[in-house]
Automatic annotation (TrEMBL), chains A, B:
Places the protein is found: Membrane
Principal location class: membrane
GO biological process, alphabetically ordered: CDP-diacylglycerol biosynthetic process
EC code: 2.7.7.41
Cross-referenced InterPro entries: PC_Trfase_euk (IPR016720)
Domain of life: Eukaryota
Topology versus the membrane: Multi-pass membrane protein
GO cellular component: endoplasmic reticulum membrane
Origin species: Oopsacas minuta
Catalytic reaction(s) noted: a 1,2-diacyl-sn-glycero-3-phosphate + CTP + H(+) = a CDP-1,2-diacyl-sn-glycerol + diphosphate
Pathway: Phospholipid metabolism; CDP-diacylglycerol biosynthesis; CDP-diacylglycerol from sn-glycerol 3-phosphate: step 3/3; Lipid metabolism
Name the UniProt record assigns to this protein: Phosphatidate cytidylyltransferase
Length: 413, 413
């Protein structure tokens, strides 16, 4: 309804538009600029959103070429930005009250905690990368063996500094900022960890869910924009049932075919382990069962069909991505209303901040993590071997004899 | 100074005391009751604290007799109480504003999240206990295989209900309560997990740190009470340098000898694995190296001494427990001041709530967890074996051949 009215309005008042154009020409503006000025605000927003949606997709596709390292860096940067967006909301209130000047280490301490938790969650991975170059470096080994201890020690330093810089009259503010920052750090660091687990297992399980949510976001927006008339939830007045259902139908269809398409590329489906690759990212392996076409018989129709098993998993993602993941968006909308924000930030024109854009991705990522662990568990045999060979020899002998007797009983030794 | 003044006051005004006594006799009070009434408030507090300190120690010692199961239950109850204490602070403010009547599922949702996280962190352990009785029960296996998935699903139900019950005008309150509850749940559930890891490895590493902090608490209080005159930190005006240092000296001495004493009992030092034991708790094993007296040569003195290696680890705990763990207490004090609370609760007369009593224990527990993982890692060979035998046979064969070649190269096969 709104769309039509706006269009009618633009057509019904040609004089105004012409006047605007004349005005524009006087300002020395080009044709495109004039066309832009004559657009209704809703269409302007549509174009800005579209252009920046394609820009983001382009960045994403380019980053994929960089392989797991590039993707991890992208995830890390998104994490940092998300934390910053949440933390700065808590600052805003106190900055307005002119308090921060009096608060010691107001911002530094929060960023110190971000650093400590980043060191904890990324440090080991980065150190494993160093192994590629120098397996026996003493300092690297030291950092690896004492990784948790160092992280804890660094955190304790921050904790003690926090307690020592507590200032009378500011206790409540300081504790609130501390709690707020910790919630943001824990939330986004955990989510980042989930996401990276998928990257490590294979890029396929990282890209597919992201594309699922992107597809659902885009088509829910398009269906809502052109057909939307029934409001879905009071938290997000712009969201409609038409968008919700249209997005879901397209997403399910898209994911069913896209999952099969992606499964053909070794770069997508091969596990990464700890290999570092040059640009462009390449990888080769025998694809696992889940990426091998399998004949499914449809007993009732007395016929069958070839499918990649991963297509069936992908359908589960499509349903979650269009049915449950939007609640991540509703949650974010409610949060923005609670703290009277339009957007979390204005980083991406037409889309808002990182959290505005990725709100549903975060929920999706947790689901994928849980789903993969439950239904597609992967054992990192290299890591397991390393662990076993690090055991005391008597433990190794015990494990060896137990494995031998099991394999003997199966007639495999 | 304060102590003396109060005593002087009591002695200098005998008339008042006598008058009080006469008053008491008229009320028909007994001799002890009269003595109690005549005590200065500080001494009353001292006696209440002492009696309930001993009560708590008694409960603790009795629970030890119940073995790991009883201790886990105790830890769980303490966790629940601590979460309740924090969560109810956030309620208090809104209850005063008469808002909660209008808020749907005000408390239920928070307790639902507590339930979900408890199920997640304790569920697997409890299901392993069931294995003792029936290893092949289908439903139990189902719950075990899908544990993470079920937990996630349960959490999502709570999350969606939260979003759907968001009520206009209450957004900010609802999000604040949600965040507050999540901080409390995550904090205490993580700490509980740390503590239980020590219980499982052996009761020794659970009891020793707890006794370290208890010892430090008691002697810091006693030294502060009798000798304290130099204030330590403005957050806790009752704490003094004399108490801090006195507590530390006694704790280091106590822990050095107590750690050797405890190391003699198999019940203390044997790993628990998944055994369930009857009351009273018994266990037998060959103690590991850390619990076996070792000869340490002191090269400079040209002599040596027999020590349990665990005594040296215990000294590290003593230093942390008396130097760093008190910051947990300062943090809690600051928090109470920030939210204008005297105590977190009045559960334990003279001591306050569970958090008041265990503030330093929580910090100690995290340290012990990190320390154990770093310096005294234990491999659960049973769990490792189970994991290996669950692998696909080709993976088992691969692992077997790698183990064989390693043991061959060491000349052990």
């Amino acid at each position: 309804m709104e769309v039509r009215n706006r269009n009618l309005l633009a057509k019904a008042e040609p004089d105004t538009v012409v006047t605007n154009n004349v005005q524009s020409e006087k300002d020395g503006k080009s044709g495109i600029s004039r066309m832009w000025d004559s657009l209704a605000p809703k269409w302007k927003n549509w174009w800005v959103r579209a252009v920046f949606a394609f820009t983001m997709i382009a960045i994403f596709v380019l980053t994929i070429q960089l392989g797991p390292f590039g993707l991890s860096l992208l995830v890390f940067l998104v994490q940092l930005k998300a934390i910053q967006e949440i933390v700065s909301i808590s600052y805003q209130k106190y900055i307005q009250q002119n308090l921060p000047q009096n608060l010691p280490l107001f911002r530094s301490l929060n960023w110190y905690f971000v650093f400590v938790v980043s060191y904890y969650s990324y440090g080991l991975t980065i150190q494993h990368l160093f192994d590629e170059f120098d397996d026996r470096s003493h300092i690297n080994q030291l950092f690896k063996s004492y990784h948790l201890f160092i992280s804890f020690f660094l955190y304790m330093v921050g904790f003690i500094v926090f307690v020592l810089t507590l200032k009378k009259g500011f206790y409540k503010i300081q504790f609130k900022l501390y709690g707020w920052a910790h919630l943001a750090i824990m939330l986004f660091m955990t989510l980042g960890h989930f996401i990276l687990q998928s990257v490590v297992s294979s890029i396929y399980w990282f890209i597919l869910p992201i594309c699922t949510v992107i597809c659902n976001d885009i088509f829910a927006y398009i269906f809502g924009f052109f057909l939307g008339r029934t409001p879905l939830i009071s938290l997000s007045p712009k969201k409609t049932w038409e968008g919700f259902i249209g997005g879901m139908v397209v997403t399910i269809l898209f994911v069913f075919f896209f999952s099969a398409y992606l499964a053909q590329f070794p770069t997508m489906v091969c596990p990464i382990s700890s290999q570092v690759s040059a640009f462009p990212y390449t990888l080769n392996c025998t694809p696992s069962d889940v990426f091998t076409p399998t004949y499914y018989t449809l007993s009732q129709l007395d016929t069958g069909v070839y499918l990649y098993p991963c297509q069936l998993h992908a359908l589960v993602f499509a349903v979650f991505g269009s049915l449950i993941a939007p609640f991540g968006g509703f949650f974010a909308s409610g949060f923005k209303r609670a703290f009277k924000l339009k957007d979390f930030d204005d980083l991406i024109p037409g889309h808002g901040g990182v959290i505005d854009r990725f709100d549903c991705q975060f929920l999706m990522a947790s689901f994928v993590y849980v789903y993969m662990i439950t239904f597609l568990p992967q054992t990192d045999l290299e890591k397991l071997t390393r662990m076993l060979l690090d055991l005391p020899t008597e433990d190794q002998l015990l494990i060896h004899s137990r494995l031998s007797s099991n394999l003997n009983s199966l007639g495999l030794l």
